[in-house]
Amino acid sequence: MELDRTSCTSFWANQFRVLLTAAAYALMQEIRLQAKNITLARAQVTTLREQLLKLSARLEQSVRRIVLHLPQSFAYLNEWTRIARKLGATPA
Q: Per residue in 35-72, pLDDT tens?
């Protein structure tokens, strides 16, 4: 999420970094919009990243779907589930 990190010697590599940063920022804004009725509605990007995205989970992939197994001790499980469902995830 740092746009000033364009330290590659190639223009196209730097351009790709800028593009990835812009996509990540758009994703974080969409997560913030979907979290409007919960405690994380006005959270900053670093807070969202630390509380919702930096977690350990077990990923199970099949032909039809991807199942994410979150730990039971995850403090923001309810918030994460609400946001994921608003973004289109279906319950298992």
A: 888 878 888 888 888 888 888 899 999 998 888 898 88
Reported pTM: 0.69
Number of residues in the chain: 92
Q: Chain-centre distance of CA 43, in angstroms?
A: 13
For the chain, domain boundaries: 11-86
Picking from 14, 69, 52, the residue whose alpha carbon sits closest to that of residue 43 is 52
User: What phi and psi, each to the nearest 5 degrees, are found at residue 45?
Assistant: -60, -40
Integer Cα distance of 5 and 43 in angstroms: 24
Distance between CA atoms of 49 and 24, rounded to whole angstroms?
Answer: 11
d(CA 85, CA 34): 9
**Greatest distance between any 2 Cα atoms in the chain:** 46
